[in-house]
Amino acid sequence: MYRVLIVDDEEPVLDSYEFMLKSAAGFALAGKARSGYEALRLIHETEPDLVFMDINIPGLDGLAVIADVHKKFPHMIFVLSTAYERFDLAKRAIPLGVFAYLVKPVSKRTFFSTLEEVREALVQRPTPEEEGREDPGRLFFKKIIWQEMGEETWERWRERLAFPSDQGIVFILEAGEDTEKWCQKIAEQLFYKYHCRYDAILNRGLFLISGNVDRETLKVQLNAVIKDLIPGTAGCFFGVGDPRRGPDLYRSCNTALRELEDQRQEIDIRQWERFRIIQLRRKIDTAPPEEVKKLFTQLWGELFRSYDFTLAKVKMVPVFMFLMDDCTGCYRDHTEATPLFAAAEEIMGIPDMSRWEAWADDALEKVLFRAGLHRSAFPVPLIKAIEYIHAHYAEGIQLGDVADAAQVSPAYLSRLFSEHCKTSFIDYVTELRIENAEKLLKESKMNIKEVAFAAGYQDPNYFSKIFRKVTGRSPLAYAGEVKRGGGDL
Fold first, then answer.
1. Is 47 helix (H, G, I), strand (E, B) or coil?
2. What is the mean pLDDT of the chain?
3. In sequence order, which residues have a C-beta less than 8 Å from that of residue 166 and are 6 or more positions away?
4. Measured at the alpha carbon of residue 102, what is the angle toward residues 124 and 283, in degrees to the nearest 5?
5. Exposed, middle or buried: residue 241 (CB in 10 Å: 0-12, 13-18, 19+)?
6. Which domains does the chain have, with CATH numbers?
């Protein structure tokens, strides 16, 4: 039975991997870790055969953990998982001999196929007597070629692996789950023209062609070979490095890897974007608000990092339209429901990132509030009334005004509040106004009079009386406690 350690700071991922692992014959859970330091401790305590390692975890990141234990546990298999593949991460992972690199969300098919590949590797692990006799070709492609070599080191490896030339060029291929199979077929085609060696590392094929090879000619030939060999080449990517002398082949590796990542980046961003939007729409109506806010921030954060400011704003317009439709159905059918705000007009008018963050937080709060009403299964008139109150509480609204907006009688609306909200209309409005007054006292530089007006009270003295009645403190005392950092805030 092979022992498995799962390292990830997201509970749903831990639970998902653990659930799938239970149905995988020959594997058993050795433990779960949520940070780098906890992973280090459990690796030394349990000595697992396989570690599913997230990269972005608290404390030491996943690659730092692997680097720390790699020499002590050279045959421990590490499978990386992360939400987005990046050049710098792949560059750090390959010399560490990481077995596979999975981009979340990981499907069941990918998870189980990776386990089967791991099983084969574990079966073929060298015995203690065989340790230290790693195939020199694999060692060269896994570690040596990624480092700058001195002249003596290069000459030693050149003689050992029978490279006919002092120069070479690297290219890296990725062709989905069957990368290794296609690498062999591509290598067979290239052998007719070049002296070529390769190995499959981290689900990618790393090729070295020995000789003075023209980069652009090689790219044309590779395109033709791949098109001829691999059906459905849309999921096939390759990057070609620069021709280099042996000691500098690591530079050719870096160029090839960066070109491959550049090819993938746009497609990966779109896939990641689509997944996050789907995830956000599924959770908007069911998950706790904090979880939804975290997903939302991750989504817009990545979009604004990946695109220029204007294009990122354009991409956020349909996101809010989707979310509003999920909560109200306003874009789905001919209903009385209306959008919570004009997403396109408001978003495209935002001038900078600081304004965007403030607007996005406020807009999401409106959506989450509407989603909460949707979950509550309140009657439609009551939902309309509550939405109207939240939009107009700072004005001098009366029960009649709200009843008109909800298209019911004041008496019926009053009964709806009593039956479903377990409070009266007046108390509901009062609590909402005082809640927002507390926020203003915490977050703004308004004086008490300005806060009173902003909360919907034209008489500051009356506001102070109501505030004390609800909170047990005067607005002035509350503001003083905020400044001192005290109080139950």
1. coil
2. 83
3. 158, 245, 246
4. 140
5. buried
6. 2-130 (3.40.50.2300), 136-264 (3.30.70.120), 305-484 (1.10.10.60)
| Contact (CB, 8 A) for 388 and 405 | yes
Other C-beta atoms lying within 10 Å of the C-beta of residue 162: 9
Residue 129's pLDDT band (cuts 50, 70, 90): very low
Collect all residues with Cβ–Cβ distance below 8 Å to 157 and sequence separation of at least 6. Answer: 140, 144, 149, 163, 246
- How does pLDDT run across 272-288, given as a tens digit for each residue? 677 678 878 877 766 67
Nearest Cα to Cα of residue 26 among 121, 103, 126, 131? 121
Neighbouring CB atoms inside 10 A of 400's CB total: 11
Per DSSP, the three-state class of 357 is helix
d(CA 206, CA 484): 61
Residue for token pair 């390769």? 198
Taking the alpha carbons of 105, 107, 110, 115 in that order, is the dihedral positive or negative? positive
Predicted local distance difference test score (pLDDT) of residue 486: 47
Is the Cα torsion angle 346, 348, 354, 355 positive or negative in sign? negative
User: Would you state the structure tokens that stand for residue 78, as one six-digit string?
Assistant: 């590490």
Sign, CA dihedral 179-182-186-188, equals positive
- CB burial string 127-154: b at 16+ within 10 A, e below: eeeeeeeeeeeeebbbebbbeebeeeeb
Q: For residue 398, what are the contacts with CB-CB under 8 A and spacing of at least 6? A: none
CA atoms of 434 and 452, how far apart (whole Å): 9
Of 3, 16, 12, whose CA–CA distance to 43 is shortest?
3
Contacts of 407 (CB under 8 A, 6+ apart): 381, 384
pLDDT at 422 over 80: no
